[in-house]
Design brief:
single chain; 120 residues; four-stranded antiparallel sheet; 11 strands; 0% helix
Length: 120
C-alpha cells in the first residue's frame, strides 16, 4: 500500500512563493506518475501539474510559467514550486500517484491534502 504525505502549504501573499512536497512511502517514483491537484471551495478538483516516471511534465494553463513540478527519486519525493502566487491559487492541494494496473500495488493513491491560502 502506497502512502503519500503532503507538506509545505500555508499562507502566502500575492506574488509570493511556496514549495509543496509529496513524500511517498516507497520507491515508486521510478514507475509512477505523480500529479498535483487542487480544489477550491465550491469548485471542482483540477489538475495542476503532472510528472511522469521518465521526468516529462505537463501543467494546467493557469499555472504555466509560475509553477514547476520536479522529483527526487532517491528521496521518493515530488515537489511543486509555486511562484508568483495569486489569490485564485487558494485551494487544498493534493498529490496523486498513479501506478499501472499490471504492477503490484497498481492503482491510484492520494495524500491527505495541504491548504494553500494566498492573500491579496
Amino acid at each position: 500500500q502506497v502512502q503519500l504525505v503532503e507538506s509545505g502549504g500555508g499562507l502566502a501573499q500575492a506574488g509570493g512563493s511556496l514549495r509543496l512536497s509529496c513524500a511517498a512511502s516507497g520507491s515508486i517514483l521510478v514507475f509512477a506518475t505523480i500529479s498535483w491537484y487542487r480544489q477550491a471551495p465550491g469548485k471542482q478538483r483540477e489538475l495542476v501539474a503532472r510528472i511522469f516516471s521518465g521526468g516529462s511534465t505537463n501543467y494546467a494553463d493557469s499555472v504555466k510559467g509560475r509553477f514547476t513540478i520536479s522529483k527526487d527519486n532517491a528521496r521518493n519525493t515530488v515537489y511543486l514550486q509555486m511562484n508568483s502566487l495569486k489569490p485564485e491559487d487558494t485551494a487544498v492541494y493534493s498529490c496523486n500517484a498513479h501506478i499501472l494496473s499490471y504492477r503490484p500495488g497498481g492503482g491510484d493513491y492520494w495524500g491527505q491534502g495541504t491548504q494553500v491560502t494566498v492573500s491579496s
